[in-house]
Each structure stands twice: as C-alpha cells, then as structure tokens.
Amino acid sequence: MNNSEVKNDVFWQKILQAADSLRNKELENAFKQIVEAICLDPDAPHPHNLLGIYYELSENGNLARRHYRAAYSLDPTFKPACINLERICMDFGNRPTTYDFGDVPSEEPDAHNETKQFNYRRT
Asked: In this model, does residue 21 exceed pLDDT 70?
C-alpha cells in the first residue's frame, strides 16, 4: 500500500467517524475529525458537507449554508451537499430535519477522487 492509499484510507476513516459522531450528537469529537479530514484532503467536498451538518446541529444556519456551498463548489456532482443545501434553503420549519451525511457507498464514481462516491443516507 503506497502513501497516497494510506492517506485516502485515513481520510475516509475520519469522514466515517465524524458522521457517526454527528449522528450521536458528539459535536466536539465530530468537529475534530472533520478538521483532520480537511487537513488530509482540503479539496474534498465531504468534510465541508459534514461541517454544514455540524453547524446546523449547533444552530448556526448561516455557517451551515456556507459549508454546504463550499462542498458544492468543490464538487457540484456531490449529491449530499446538493441535497443538504436545498433542504436548508427551503426548510420552513414544519417538518423534521433529515441530514444527508454522504457516508453510504453508491455505484456512482466520485469526480473528486475517482473512487465510489459516498452517497446519501437520511437519518
């Protein structure tokens, strides 16, 4: 296994750990994992999508929208960011919030790193 493969594995571990922490409302741990993932791959949309969820859970909608937009601008084909951005911009507060963590593999290639894209699961 070469160095870039190891780095990619660590990146995905951080993403999965952050998503699990967000689901469990362990915001401090989630933030730490997300920042570490950004340090490993600053051009990936995945950590920004998770930061958007982090800020929504922290009740900061403005920062949440900024990070969903950042994820979208890094990769417009990354569906979880598109779904979350649309949801937060169209949310009228009359339905339960569902987040797209982007941590379930799909068969679609990810334009960012040519691996299978972690597509959406709503919880």
From this structure: yes
Exposed e or buried b per residue across 65-93, where buried means at least 16 C-beta atoms within 10 angstroms of its C-beta: bebbebbbebbeebbbbbbbbebbeeeee
| Average predicted confidence (pLDDT) for the chain | 85
Residue 100 has a pLDDT of: 84
Q: What is the 3-state secondary structure (H, E, C) of the chain?
A: CCHHHHHHHHHHHHHHHHHHHHHCCCHHHHHHHHHHHHHHCCCCCHHHHHHHHHHHHCCCHHHHHHHHHHHHHHCCCCHHHHHHHHHHHHCCCCCCCCCECCCEEEEEECCCCCCEEEECCEC
- Residue 104 phi/psi, 5° resolution? -110, 125
Confidence check: pLDDT of 93 > 90:
no
